[in-house]
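Hi, here's the filled form for the chain we discussed.

Project: internal
Contact: R.S.
Residues: 170
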Amino acid sequence: MRSGARRVFAACTALALAACAPADLDDDPAVVPPVFGADVLQRWLAAGFYEAGGWMCEAAPHATAGLSPHGTIRTCKNPVALGAEAAADWPVDSAWVTELYAGSGAQRGFTVMRRSEPSAGSASWYWFQEADGAAPSADGWGFEGPPLTDCSACHVTAGTGANPGHGFVF
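And the returned structure, exactly as it came back:
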């Protein structure tokens, strides 16, 4: 390839990649968790991004309400979710990290949920859960596998009957 053609190819490639780049909010790890798989998310959790950058965390672990299988938890929500509690629907990029605790008070794992699309239903949510040193039991979108059968199937009940919350969030 001649050098002029290489420059044109390089410029076109750069423009194409820039056009496909995620929005600024997606690029800020202090605001939103990554949704690129367990390895990336586990590194993000270990770095403690959710404990900074304007996230609000509950003061202390507490027992869950209702039928939750998570036991003792402490939940943190990102700045996008903070301003939307009264909204009828959660905005895209609303996210929560829930720390899971053992009866001894030791942290035993995490759950993460992030709204990724404005569409209704479980497919617009990314779900992650790992506990007790085991491989993640959920890692993916709410339209298949454990994110659908475990996470979404439970969270769809938020705001129904005696369950608190709304829009997949308890």
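Let me know if anything looks off before we file it.
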